[in-house]
Design goal:
By secondary structure, the chain is α/β, with parallel strands linked by helices. The chain has 9 helices and 7 strands, in the order H-H-H-E-H-E-H-H-E-E-H-E-H-H-E-E. It has a single domain, classed as 3-Layer(aba) Sandwich (Rossmann fold). Helix content is about 40%, strand content about 25%. The site of S-adenosylmethionine has 24 residues, from helix 2 and helix 4.
Length: about 210
């Protein structure tokens, strides 16, 4: 019961269980995010967007990497926006970070705004993945980069590893082939996948033309 309540709140955290889930995600995704961020070059003056920013931990990591650049976080959960703002209050006060409520399907930004867009452990929940990737493409600058980060990756050695979560949430673990294919269809180029065999993690980088 507790497990179910907690996991269900990964989709769109709200209420008591949402608060617990946000705390658990900030902690539980930190190492995964650090590993993934190594695969993308972030310049000191970059404009970066973190989509599905959850409790805002990735936003705070990105703020440490950009000097006079800006970091935006977007999440469609009101509670996540509140918690992200709290965690990043100093960065918000000095106008380095901005947290907004919004959906990946209709990002509240003009086109060609971001050098980098990150999305950690959120892709599985997107309702219209092809169009959502196209929406991110729209807000990326030419040659801008997308970094997608996954813990739920299909595995030949452990084919049932994610069955329980998949059935509970109605989502699917991703495969290297599927993610490459959909990114190509969405118009991205220079798609690269990286895996960490000891954990099964995967991250993908892709570029706007
Ligand atoms: C598993 S959590 C990951 C949060 C954070 N990225 C992290 O690594 O801790 C998934 C997040 O994606 C957000 N999310 C899911 N679908 C979304 C959508 N269509 N638009 C914006 N945010 C979304 C959820 O509200 C939730 O905060």
């Amino acid at each position: 019961m507790k497990y179910r309540k907690l996991v269900e709140n990964a989709v769109r955290p709200q209420g008591f269980w949402g608060k617990l889930m946000i705390r658990s995600m900030n902690k539980g995704h930190s190492e995964l995010t650090d590993w993934a961020l190594v695969h993308i070059k972030i310049n000191r003056d970059d404009n970066v967007l973190d989509v599905g920013c959850g409790g805002g931990k990735t936003v705070s990591k990105l703020c440490e990497k950009v000097g006079n650049g800006k970091v935006f976080g977007v999440d469609y959960s009101e509670l996540c926006v509140e918690k992200s703002k709290k965690l990043n209050k100093n960065n918000i006060m000095c106008a380095k970070a901005t947290i907004l409520q919004g959906s990946v399907s209709a990002l509240p930004f003009e086109e060609n705004k971001f050098d980098i867009v990150t999305a950690v452990e959120t892709y599985y929940f997107w309702q219209d993945k092809l169009n959502d990737l196209k929406e991110i493409y729209r807000v990326l600058k030419p040659c801008g980069k997308l970094l997608l980060v996954f813990e739920m990756v299909t595995s030949e050695e452990k084919p049932h590893k994610w069955d329980k979560v998949e059935n509970l949430l109605g989502i699917k673990a991703v495969s290297k082939e599927d993610i490459t294919d959909i990114l190509l269809h969405a118009g991205y180029q220079n798609i690269r996948t990286y895996s960490k065999s000891s954990t099964g993690w995967m991250c993908v980088t892709a570029e706007k033309e």
